[in-house]
Amino acid sequence: MNVITREVARPVATPLPPLPPGRAGLSFGEAGLAALSALAANKLRAALTALGIFIGVAAVIVTVAVGAGARQQVLSQIQSLGANLLLVWGSNVRMGGVSLGAGQRPNMSWDDAQAIPREIPAVEAAAGTIRQQLQIVYSNQNWSTWVNGTDLDWFVAHEWVVAEGRFFSEEEATSGRKVALIGQTVAENLFGDENPVGREIRIRATPFEVIGVLGRKGQNPMGQDQDDMVVMPYWTARRSVMGASRAFARSVGSISVKVAEGEDMAEVEEQLRAFFRQRHRVAANEPETVNIRNLSEIAATRDASARTLSLLLAAVAAVSLLVGGIGVMNIMLVSVTERTREIGLRLAVGARRQDILRQFLLEAVLLALLGGAAGVAVGIALAHTLGAAGGWPVLIQWDAVALAVAVSGLTGLFFGYWPARRAASLDPIQALRHE
Amino acid sequence: MDALIETRDLTRHYPSGEGVVAALEGVNVSMRPGEFVAAMGPSGSGKSTFLNLIGCLDQPTRGSYRLAGEEVGTLSPERLAALRGEKIGFVFQSFHLLPRSDALSNVMMPMLYRGIPPKIRRERAEMALERVGLASRMHHTPSQLSGGQQQRVAIARALVCGPELLLADEPTGALDSRTGLEIMALFQALNRSGVSILCVTHDPDVAAFAGRTLRFRDGRLFEDETHPPVDAAAMIGVPFA
């Protein structure tokens, strides 16, 4: 070995200039960079550790999105029923002490429906309806559907719009003209692509002119297709379709009552009960003759159960976040043990305990946040994919996304604290000797 | 008040099993700035305890230790850490480099805890590496460097904050004798440029490069001898600036 050519370096004797004064301690940004490079040094392990958080956050986002989508669907179904709607139909009818069963015999009349808005000022519209399932024939097509005979108020109460054609007129309603409006489902099944307006359909061999097609509503909260029906004036239905025995010549099966905006639904319901007690001459100790349903209430119950379900799913997802957090703690403890000498060195060169604490805590938080961010991305993508594949409505809840990210960060902070404390409390002498 | 190190009755006891171990007992030492001192003794002699106390990694059970005029024995852990960063540069037997960082990052690391901006950190780290003759190896990771080069990186790291005292713990213990000589020559060069060095070793040949040797036995300082240093550079024939 040649003494001269061997590369030993020639040290420069010039001393370094004095170190400029700095702030004491590790800055937040520097600690973050150090934490990032520590994570980058062990990418696979970091990725596997973040996996728990990742799955938790993705699960939260997917379940919340699907749950919110389901709730939104229920809410739009509630709206499709018509707001502030009370449905009245006949209750138990007794004849000579014998119960005939609810709704078996109509006990309300067209005149009851007409009287309601006069008697109860809070009612905006009331429409008596009879309905029957009947076969509808057009050319060589036929379709079985519900035929409703009702009043113009019915369209108001149930918030129907006309997609094509028109509603029937007052004159047509009172004179019993053979006109009908059909729902979208009926239009599709009988007419296909043809425009039904002006065509003639037959019900029980009687021809009716289709004067309009109603706008689409879809399913109601009970899952029934609201577009599968035909509507015609009450008197038309009475005279031309459903027959009219003398006893039931003016009867209606149900009355749709729309309560004016801002009125108390429960109060109007009470007034309606009182109205029917009086009108049907029901004594105070006798059972009521009508049933009244607040449809939005039923729907609200469904909404509440959808909410409970999504809460439950979110709770399950939260548990997986917890498990992910324990994974972070586990790996951070391993990391502290592995890097004991490094910690000893950092303490020896002037790191304060809080610097070490900050460094390891940030590492855990960054790890969890990276997992959380990946979980957000994949969760959103997965929610959309699932929604598209399963035909479910999906609604990304951005506040839930923000919450999931915040919670993953907090998970890192919480589960990272103990390992970081352990790192910070190491004795530098012992740590430097650690093998 | 011109002493760099001043100890009075410096004592460190450790609790142990059914009693107390006196790792260091009543040491009185004074070291002036610019000295190159070796602390010698077999293992268990107290020299490592002495080093830990001088390095502000530990605090005495009894007695006083003043580093550059500041009493260390009563300082808070925070202030102790700051003092290590400001006044002491450590060189270890096993280098203690961060394995995944290059030489430059290793040397920059101590300044991280001093709030020095990155640009100045880099400049100073480059200067410190030049000073130990590693200007061409700045971006090598420890595994790409020889043992001697790794120890040079560690020395650059110890120098980078401009410490009052360089503390070396068996700096040649993990090196072959030739490389060890190079390291000692570097220490001597640094010492000539004004760096105060305290070097702990069990090896009398290493202690010979210092100008003064403290001999420890059974936790006590039993000899404090000043002697002319052997010139390490002359032994390997490499001229040092």
UniProtKB/TrEMBL annotation, chain A:
Transmembrane segments: 48-70, 311-336, 360-383, 395-418
Keywords from the named record: Cell membrane, Membrane, Transmembrane, Transmembrane helix
Ligase recorded as keyword: no
Broad class of where this protein is predominantly found: membrane
Superkingdom of the source species: Bacteria
Residues of the MacB-like periplasmic core domain: 47-274
Entry-linked InterPro entries: ABC3_permease_C, MacB_PCD, Macrolide_Exporter_MacB
UniProt KW GTP-binding keyword: no
Domain ABC3 transporter permease C-terminal intervals: 315-428
Subcellular location: Cell membrane
UniProt membrane topology term: Multi-pass membrane protein
Family in the record: Belongs to the ABC-4 integral membrane protein family.
Record's protein name: ABC transporter permease
Organism, as annotated: Sabulicella glaciei
UniProtKB/TrEMBL annotation, chain B:
Domain ABC transporter: 5-241
Keyword entries, A-Z: ATP-binding, Nucleotide-binding, Transport
Entry's Gene Ontology molecular function annotations: ATP binding
Gene3D superfamilies named in the record: P-loop containing nucleotide triphosphate hydrolases
Residue ranges of the TM segments: none
PROSITE patterns, per database record: ABC_TRANSPORTER_1 (PS00211), ABC_TRANSPORTER_2 (PS50893)
UniProt cross-references to CDD domains, sorted A to Z: ABC_MJ0796_LolCDE_FtsE
Protein name (record): ABC transporter ATP-binding protein
